[in-house]
# Entry
Amino acid sequence: MKKSIIVTLLLFGVIVQGQNKKWTLQECVEYALENNISVKQSELDVLATDIERLSAVGNFLPSISANSGVSENTGLSFNPVTNNAQTTTFLSVTGRVNVGYTLFDGLRNFRELQRADISKIASQYRLDKMKDDISLFVANNYLQVILNKANLEVFKSQNEVTKAQIQRTQELVDAGSLPRGDLLEIKATDASEQQSIINAENSIQISLISLAQLLLIKDYENFDIEDEGYDIIDEGISEKSVSEILSKAKETRSEIKIAEQNVELANKDLQIAKSANYPTLSAFFGYDTRYTDAASFDQRIDPNNPTITQEIGTVQGTGQVVVGEVPNTFAVEVGADPFVDQLYQNDGISYGLQLNIPILNGFATKGNIQRNKINLERTKFQLEQAELDLESTVFQAYVDAKGALKSYEAAKSAVESQQLAYDYAKERYDVGLTNAFDFSQSKLRFDNANIELNRAKYDYIFKLKVLELYFGIPATELKF
# Structure
C-alpha cells in the first residue's frame, strides 16, 4: 500500500513538473527546428536530391533485362524449333536476356551526376536558410512574450502604488484635508490600471498561443516560457563597421550561396542540353533459347533396302535419261527432347555496337539549348539581385540596430527623468500641494516611460541578434 502511494505521488509530481515546465529560448529554437513543417519540407527536399544522384549514378551501369514466354498452340502453327508448319497442339517456351551499355553520349551522364551534386548543395543551403528564418521568427515571438510580461509587471507594480494612495487619500478625505474629488480621481486611475493589467494578461496569452502554434505545441493552457535572465548581450558586433559585416555576410549567408548554386545548375543544364548534339554509341548483347514439346519427323534409311535407282536427269542434246542410286529413306515421328537439352540445343547469342547520329529533330535540341542559355542569364541576374538585396538588407539591419540602441538609451534617460518627476509629484501629493489629477498624470507618464523602455530594450536585443546573424553567427549559437 505504501509503495502504491509513493509511486502515485512520484507520478503526480512528474506530471505537475511537466505541466509547469518553462521553455527557454534555446529549447524553443531547437524544438522548432525539429518539428516545424517548413523545416521538415526542406529536409525532404535534401533527401530528394539523394534520389536524383542515385539515378545519375545508375546511368553509368549497364541495362539488363530478361523476358520469357509460355504459349500453347492448337491447329496450324509454326514449330519454334524446327520452323515447320504443323497442324497439332504443342507447348512452347521462349526466353531472352538483353544487356545494353552506353559507351558515349556526349558526356551527358557525367553532367547529370555533377548536376545532382550541385542540387544537393543548393538544397542544403535552402535548409540552412529556412532554419535561420525559423530561429529568428521563434526568437522574435519569444521576446514579444517577454515584453508583454515585463509590461504586466510595470502595470502591477504601479497599481500597488495606486492602491496605497487610495488608502492614504481615503484617510485624508475622511479627515477633511483633501476634497472627495481627489479620491474619485485616484479610484478612476485604479480602474484604468486594472483594465491595463487585464489587457496585458490577454496580450501575454495571445503571444504565448502564437509561439506555441509556431512550435506545433497544442497544450496552450500549460505552455509557458522562462522570462528571466534575458538581457542585452553584445559580443562586439555593434563596434564593427557596416562594410565588415557586409563582407562577412556575402561569405556566409545562404541567400548568396543559393543564388550561386542556381547559376551552377543552369550552367549544367546548358551543358546537358548541348550533349544532345553529339552521337550516341552503345553496345548490346543478347542471349535467347527456346523449348517445345511438339513431336518432329526424322528421315531414316530402310535397312532392308538402303538404296533405290532413281532418275536424276537427262543429257542435253540427246535427251538420254540419266539414273542413279539414292538413299531409300522414310519419315519417322520423333518425340520432343528433354527441356534442359533443348535449352542448350536451341540457344543463340547476338552482340554488336549501335551508333545513333542526330541530324534533324525539328529544332527541338536547338530550342532546348536556347532556353537553357536564357535561363543561365536569368540566374546570373538573380545572383546579382541577391547580392544587391543582401547589401540593402545588411545596411538596413545595421541602421535599425544603431537606431534601436539610441532609442533604448533615450528610453533609459526618459525613465530616469520621469522617475524624478513622479517622485516629486508623489511628495507634493502626499503633503497636499498638488491634486490627484496632476499626480495621476505624472504617474501615467512614468508608466508609459517604463513600457517604452521595455519595448526599446527587447527591440534592440532582437535587432542586435539579426545583425549577428548576418555576421555569420549561427542562429543556434546566438546568446540572449
In short: Residues 1-18 have pLDDT under 50 and may be disordered. The first helix runs from residue 2 to 19.
